[in-house]
């Protein structure tokens, strides 16, 4: 728990670019616990969730939520097992937080999947087939939630667990990754989930492998990134492009600036470059626009750079934005037209800072409310004793999920990406 309060600051201004539309304002806030190595996901077009992590006091179980409808932060509660290096994904109105590492249990690795249902504002638990940390997660078609890879009790693993939301059951034959590895990245486009990059103690060590699962036929295929690397970031743009950026390669000059883009319609890969090579960055997308934020380099330390790539036009903004606090091992997700990057490690400490960026134009004078740290602390104090009062109703949740496309369309109509 941090011992002092921070003010909430709003920053406004235009960033002009030659080829791609960018946000015209940002907002900075604080959340309940300073931490790194947390996981993030979004429920519908309303909630951005940040769970788990680690700081000097130990493993974190807190789950913070940003409500895009009100601009308010709250604490939903705690994971059943505090942990870091977990993976998160969401299917419609349900969020899943799987695996991770807990320093106080034997062997460290965790097999729990904590499940939050926004409609009921309730928590439940599932169990992975193998306890592991450093895994990746993706959702396909709002039905299949897949946890893949990671570091298990006996070393790096190729295990895949696939939860079928429609059947409320684990798939009996989920397949496996082609290579056992951890520190990989995952995203989904169309009917496919992609798990790219990663690391193993065994040769080749760093991987360019992309394992692709197709929900249409249930088959796995294998592709390749243009460069082997771990600790990369991935996001899905407009449901068509899977974008993998940054990461760490074998030394020397081990940070990567490469961004690999898979077009699911064309079935092709292309490559482009970040403005700064870095690893342990975060990525999130709204519409066709992908934000890559933060990271670290051996030479320069933590980065505050936010690169913005428009997958529809294959262009980068002429300039970059910046995080309010340069940092790495942060988490990012999108909710509606807003991109949210939370926490991480920067300036030799764990930070509580959250940076929000708008992916479509808004009035310069518009501000979105954000809770102060004191308010979030107060919420946290009552979170374990009572359910959050900000939970979605069933109809609200479905409406939020179903309106995500229309929100992006409205932004595109206002100023096309």
What does this 3D model show about the protein?
- With 417 residues, this protein is mainly beta.
- Helix content is 7%, strand content 41%.
- It has three helices and 37 strands.
- Strands 1-2-37-36-35 form a five-stranded antiparallel β-sheet, with no helix packed on it.
- The longest helix is centred in the C-terminal third of the chain and has 11 residues, at 373-383.
- It is globular and about 50 Å long.
- Residues 1-25 and 361-417 have low confidence and may be disordered.
Helix and strand topology:
Layout: E1 9-12, E2 25-30, E3 39-43, E4 47-51, E5 54-55, E6 58-59, E7 62-67, E8 72-78, E9 87-91, E10 94-98, E11 112-117, E12 122-127, E13 132-133, E14 136-140, E15 144-148, E16 151-152, E17 155-156, E18 160-164, E19 169-170, E20 185-189, E21 192-196, E22 209-214, E23 220-224, E24 233-237, E25 241-245, E26 258-263, E27 268-273, E28 282-286, E29 289-293, E30 296-297, E31 301-302, E32 305-310, E33 315-316, E34 321-322, E35 331-335, E36 338-346, E37 349-358, H1 373-383, H2 394-402, H3 404-414
Antiparallel strand pairs: 1-2, 2-37, 3-4, 4-7, 5-6, 7-8, 9-10, 10-11, 11-12, 13-16, 14-15, 15-18, 16-17, 18-19, 20-21, 21-22, 22-23, 24-25, 25-26, 26-27, 28-29, 29-32, 30-31, 32-33, 32-34, 35-36, 36-37
